[in-house]
Each structure stands twice: as structure tokens, then as C-alpha cells.
Sequence to fold (629 residues):
Amino acid sequence: MSSFNRDAVERRILGALRPLTIIVLLLICLFPFYYMLLLSFRPLDAVIQDPGALWPKAGEIDLGTYRDVLASTEDGGQGFLTFIRNSFIVAIGTVVLTLLVAIPGAYAVSRLEFFGRRQISAVFLGVYFFPAILLAIPLFVFFTRIGQRGTLLGLLVVYVAQVAAVSIYMLRNYFDTIPASIEEAAAIDGCTRLQAMRHVSLPLAMPAIMSNALFIFMIAWNEFLFALLFLVEKRENWTVSLGLSQLAGSIEVPTTVLMAGSVILTVPIIGLFFLSERWLAGGLTAGAEKG
Amino acid sequence: MTTGGPAGQTATALEAPTPAPQGGRSRRARASRASDDRRAGYLLISPTVVIVFAMVVLPILWTFSLAFQQVRLLNLRQTGIIGDYSLENFTNVLTSPGFVDALVTTLVYSVAGTACAIGLGLVAALALRRPFRGRGLVRACMLLPYVAPVVAATFVWSTMLNPQFGIVNHYGASLLGWDDPIAFLSSSDPISPFGIDLHVSMSLFTVVLFEGWRSFPFAFLFITARMQAIPESLEEAATVDGATPTQRFFHIVLPQLLPTIAVLTVLRFIWTFNNFDDIYLLTGGASGTQVVAVRVYDYLINRGDIGAAAAQALVLAAILAVLVGIYLKFFGRSEDVA
Fold:
């Protein structure tokens, strides 16, 4: 009888706690982003006078912050339009180059028997866990010496090296699930290995490749440490992340203008994320679950 | 997703030798196919090997060389592979004031941050376990802190926590009756809940909370995936036997989740241990939050002492390797990395 009571009490308490927990979790996940958006629309004086406002007052909405943050420095703005261009160049370049090297690599590690293929995967995976700051030192020194520090190309090469390993790991897991018999059938029809790979396995792996591409794009778009080390002295080459972090330290730029910059930095990522959430959530776990 | 079964089977089927064919011709064909495969394998993997070797492996080796030389940003152009090697950097770094503190801070930050992230992830996974309308959307929202750019997230947090016009201090004063605004990110005062001094500064406490907020979605995702694989019949049987919800959690659900939590702990610990971005962007390493990664950056850029930076980074990596090695010795037997 007493255990029945305990059961009823627990059920009631947990039944009440569950929706409460969900609401609190939603609040802590969403509120910072809402606050970001809110502040980007309010003038700075209004924020300082009434810091607790949870929505903009009537007639208070001010889109001037976006104009200020996007306009070039010659026009009195912060030049984020240039930063956006740089971020896109680096992120898309990283995606394209990484996929170019990682798709064949993943295929080889998954399908082809060659000496050292297991060791290669293990070494690649190790990269994922290596302290980035350790790698940053020699790369900083190296690119300084060859005079390529400060160029977007140098940054791009470093990004490709960093994500190629993870990319191969994720794609290999997917190639492993494609039955070899399909390719064998193609081989009987007279296809060579590479033809079978191009015409049979690659189209089948398209969903995984797409989600991988998005994953790489997000990593490159969000990256901060190497952008800081490589580009900080060249304002015209700053990425959005770097630009925001550098300007956040100065007193001259109003916080609300930088909030507009934050929104600009965040929106592409959240947009991509919601477009591809199903693929990506699967990809994140599929890539790491086995390890 | 949770079991590597089908994938593993395909892989073994591929590698399994085909039944020995009769006659020399097919054997020769098979051998040539194998050597073709080998050649194609090397060809396809070589671009990745080259770039990873040039941009990851060689630089790591070079770090060793730098760590044993007196290299500064100013005399960078004169140093080569052959130079005056000495242990000076290591002795300087290990005995310099602040290094041990940074190491302790790193450990506190990683352990507490990992615990926060996994604890919150577990709570979220349990709360969202039973289906309801809009659960998919709620789940997606839970992942936002993890996918959002770190620079934007830290900037919003530091604005929210700002002592002058931050929303947290505003409501802290008006609703909770705080006397003075709290400088969450620049106060080195130790926090002492209920009068117990934890030797942890307010700022360190805040960056740990940030780490929990930012990383719990990762734990949430993993735990949710594992939870979906627990057969319902087990819990149904326990319910019939009169087990209460908490008993079912502790005796049925939790034991099934433990291996996943163990893996998560290692992954999160490694990444938090190496973390540079979050602390650099939130506090710059001031007021009791200087972790080793931030200290390395400080030596590299602000002091221009490349040798000392390299030595510290190597010490950081070595400690991490030892910690992970200890872990793998205990849990790593069933693990198949390749």
C-alpha cells in the first residue's frame, strides 16, 4: 500500500516538474538569442535608460544599427559587409576543398584494402582531439615566415586540414552502410572501381555528403582561434566572428550596433540549422557515436 | 545509429576471402583486382594524407623543436631546425608563478563544465522523453546554444551579465533585491554559497555555467539517441512489478545510459580541457579564469615568447594524454577506433 502511495506521489511530482523543466530549458536556450535580436533593434540610450524592457516600445524600433554595422568604414560604418564576404569565401572554400579530398579518402578507407588504412583512420581521428592551441603555435610561426599570415588562403588551408579528418570519419561510416554488392554488380557490368564509385556509391552517399558539407560550413563560419591568430592585423580580411570580437572590446562602437553584428553572424547558422536539422542531428551523433 | 551492427557486418563481408576459386587464371584476376584496389586506395587517400601531414603532423613535430629553443617573435627569422636545444623553456614555464594555478583552473573548469553539460543534457533528455505535440521543434531549439557561433554567444552573455545595463543585474536588483550589481565576468571574489569557501572566483563560476549552457545540447543529443534504444518491455515489466518512476530510472534507465555517459564524459572533458575560445572571449583570462590554453596564447602573442608557449602547450597535451590514457585503460577495451 505504501509503495502504491509513493508511486502516486512520484508520478504527480514528476508530472508537474516535466513541463516546468521543458519551459525553463526552452527559456535558457532561446532567451539569449531573443535578447540579441531585441537589443539590435533598440537605440542605445533606450537600453541604458530601461535595461529591463522585454520588448521594444512603440516607435522605438531602430534599424539604423544594421546600416551602421554593414556600411564600410569610409561611410562611417563598421564594414561588416566585407567581413561577411570574407566569411563566405573561407567557409565555402573550406567546404569545397574538404569534400574534394575527403570523399575519395573516405571511400578508400571504407572500401579498399590497402596497407595502413586502419592506422590512417586512427591518426585522423586523433586530430579531432588535439589541443588547437598547440597546433596554432607552429602554424602561426610557419605562416609568418612564408609571409602568408593574414591571407584568407592560408586560413583556408588550415581549416581544410583540421576538418578533413573528421569529414573522412563521418563519410566513411556512411560508405560502410552501402552494401558492397551494389558495386560488385556494377563491376560485373564492366565498371572499374573508380567508375563504380562515381556512378553508384557517390549518388547513394549524397545525403551524407550534404549534411557533411553543412557541418563543415558551420565549423568554418564559427571558427575563431585561427582567424584571430592569422588575420587580426588585417582588418580588410577579418571574418564576421573576428570582426565582432575585435570591435566588442572598443568603447566607440555602441553595443546595440554590435548586437546587429551578432544577429548577422548568427542568422545564417541558425537558418541552415533549421533547414537541415534532421540530417545534421543524425550526422553529429553518427560521426561520433562509435568512438 | 546506436549499434554499429549493419555497418560492421558489411565491412567484414567485404574483407572476408571469397571461396577459393579453381584454376590459376581467376586467382591471378583476384590478385590483380587486389593490387588495383591497393593502388586506387593510395591514390584516393593521398590528398588527405598530404594535407594532414603538412598542416597537422609536421607542425606538431615542429612544436617539439620550438619548445626546446629560445625562439621569440622578434628573432623568428634566424631560428632553424638546428639550433641551441635546451630544457630552459620547460624549467622556466613549470616554475613560473601562475602555471600551477592555470593548471588547477583548467582542471576545475573542465571537470565542472563537463559535469554541468552532462547533467543538464540528461535532465533535458529525460524531460523530452515522452512524445508531445511540438517535441521535434523543442528538440531543435535545445540544440541552438551548441550550433550558434561562439563569438555571438559570448557577446550576448557578456551583455546580459553587464553590471551597468545588463538584464540579469537589472532583474537581480528589482526582483531579487541584490544590493550591488554583480560583476559576473570581472569579479575575482571567491564565491561562497552558504558560507562555504569554494576557492572558485565568481568569473570562473560564470564561465563554467556558460560551458554547461553551450555544451549540454551535445550530451542531450547522445543521451536521447541511446534512450530511444532502451526496450520498452523492460520498464513495462518493472511497472507491473510496482517500481516507481524514480526506481525505474535508477535501476533500469540509468544503468543502460552509463556507457554512453562514460564516452560523453571523455569527449566533453577533452574538448573543455583544450578550450580556448569561450574563456578568451568572456573574460580574456582575467580574474581567476586563466586556463592553460589562454596562457599559451598570452605567451605567444602578448609576450612573443614562442618557445615558452610551445613548452606549455606540450605540457597541456601531455597531461591530457595521460588523463585520457588512464581512462582508456579502464574503459577502452571494447573500443574500435579504426
